Amino acid sequence: SEEETFYKSLRKHGDKVMKEEIPHFKEEHQTVEKLFDEIENLNLDEYMWWEKFGELRQALLHHMKEEEKEVFPEAKKEIPKQE
């Protein structure tokens, strides 16, 4: 998983700021997983399904934007190509 490979390398090679952000990234992953679980247990016809789907969409977009704009470029500088 991303947490077992990417964040492990980031923890090992990243600068102090990146290392301090790892709990934040993990929390975002947990939020997304929780929303997937909640959606899975709802009926597609229910209003709550669409509400939770909207929350999931926002959480994913936020996390992906953060990773693509901040985390990945920084990690590319910090993490060696071969470990």
Written description of the protein model:
This protein is mainly alpha-helical. The protein contains three helices and no strands. Helix 1 packs antiparallel against helix 2 and helix 2 runs antiparallel to helix 3. The radius of gyration is 16 Å and the shape is elongated. The model has no long low-confidence stretch (mean pLDDT 84).
TL;DR?
The chain has 83 residues and is mostly helical. It has helices at residues 2-13, 16-40, 47-78.
Which features does this protein show?
83 residues, mainly alpha, 3 helices, 83% helix
Q: Which overall shape is indicated by the principal axes computed on the Cα atoms? A: elongated
Helix and strand element order: HHH
- Using the CA coordinates, give the radius of gyration: 16 Å
By secondary-structure content and strand pairing, the structural class works out as mainly alpha
User: How far do the termini sit from each other?
Assistant: 17 Å
How much of the polypeptide forms β-strand, as a percent range?
under 5%
Question: How many individual helices?
Answer: 3
Percent helix range: over 70%
Number of strands: 0
Mean pLDDT: 84
Q: For the report, how would you describe the main beta sheet?
A: none
Segments where pLDDT lies below 50 for 5+ residues? none
Write the layout of secondary structure elements.
Layout: H1 2-13, H2 16-40, H3 47-78
